[in-house]
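Q: Fold this one first, please.
A: Sequence and structure below.
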Amino acid sequence: MATTTPNFGWPVPTSTDLVKDGAVAIEGLGDAIDASLVDLKGGTTGQVLSKATNTDMDFTWVAQDDSNAIQNALLTTTGDTIYASGASTPARLGIGTTGQVLTVSGGVPSWATPATASSGLTYITGASFSAVSSVSLPNSTFSSTYLNYKIIFNLTAAASGAAETRIRMRASGSDNTSNQYQAGGYEINYAGGGGSYYVTDGTYLLWGNIATSTATNTQFEMTMMSPQASSNTVFNINGGKGTLTWKAMTGFFNNTTSFDSMSFYADAGTISGSYRVYGIANS
């Protein structure tokens, strides 16, 4: 008498079956296997077998890019990004351009150019210098992109003979040496002494003394207003001056001159240090 397989229930003969009964059981077994594996038939080149339902042995042939999977054809360009435009809905975000950043608006991602010219301070240029008599910002450091600028200047060393730090405005690769520099301020030393400072019709701005043994005490932060405009250039300076002395100074260049750079130099000898220039947001 035929029995069945434990997993699929296919009929198989038993060891006690008569030949006739065994043949019938074997025929039933073949029919059962044929019926169970019918879904494996068919399919075309490149297709893969996929479950159709949770029922045992229920399969179907599908394209290798399953319609329920993210399709290769969705991506068209190197750097494309996939995001969800809705639940279970993949979408393509094309690659942005150089310098852009990924942002989100209304829950949808997109590429956008960062608003570097309209937020805070933007780094423009900077450099370190060593054992030079003078150092100048690159031509066109000041431009119409920004109205005002922040400059940070630091000394790290000064050669013997360097006594004071001087500043001049610059245009088209040349320092302006005309007697139009006007300034006034106040300084206080570590011992509590102090005094006022002013210059009228000078040919440069004098920041302060340089002590070769403590050159790192000579540094300042300068705010420059409208250097590139054809108007008076106004400035405010604050920082250390020489041997443990603090100084604050304000002034202007008394002529409607457009400048694109500036120079720092020692009255004699050489200086070493660094500078950094930042544009201040226009709005």
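Q: Good. Now the second chain.
A: Here it is, same layout.
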Amino acid sequence: MAKRKMAAEKKPQKHFKSPVIASRQDKGIREMAPLAPFIVSGGKNTERYYFQHISSLFAQYPFEVRPRFFGKESKYTEEFPLRIKEILREDADAKIFCVFDWDTIRGNDENLKRHNVFVKQIKSYIDNGQIILCPSMPSFEYWFLLHFKNMTRLITTCEEASKLLNPYMKSYFSQKNINLFDILKSEKYLKKSDWVENLCSDGKLDAAIERAEDNINAAVAADDLKNQSYSYVYKAFKER
């Protein structure tokens, strides 16, 4: 992994808290505190601990990660509007990345309808770049797979993505008799940051960002995105 950036090297953020955080009494100058982007996700544990560890390991990628912003994957169209409202009530200028799996939507007309209603509710925020949707097909585990190999073939389930990940990530955990799918869903195995540090080592995070963006751009240009796997999670790193 490229050496971690020291805290002093933090990248300036574009968004700032609306309330006054501090003032220089000697000069009467009011300062605004930088506001890290928020993550809301349908995944309860994998995504939560991943972004929490990213924030601690990489000073240039801070995120606001709060347990209550991570819920049930199948209920994200109900949960996200509540979480978004809560965040924007706290700070109207907050930037929000919505991370969710697409396998629960693909081929399910009812879920797709609910998704479209949700998108319509927040369209103005999407249009101005304040809310960015980051779906992965089939699941967040595919984003991990891109750290190791550039695979675009269609993977349809989280379980399949986890099996493909197994040769690369299973060694990051000491639980030998538990499959990787269960490890990545269990809070108790994800609390330490070692697995994310290993996942991102040797430039693998940068490779995943580049692969995800390039693959999506090529597929969109060819009108073929629906026939392959993809992850928009790269936007959480590039569109801050």
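Q: Anything worth noting on the second one?
A: The chain has one domain: 7-238.
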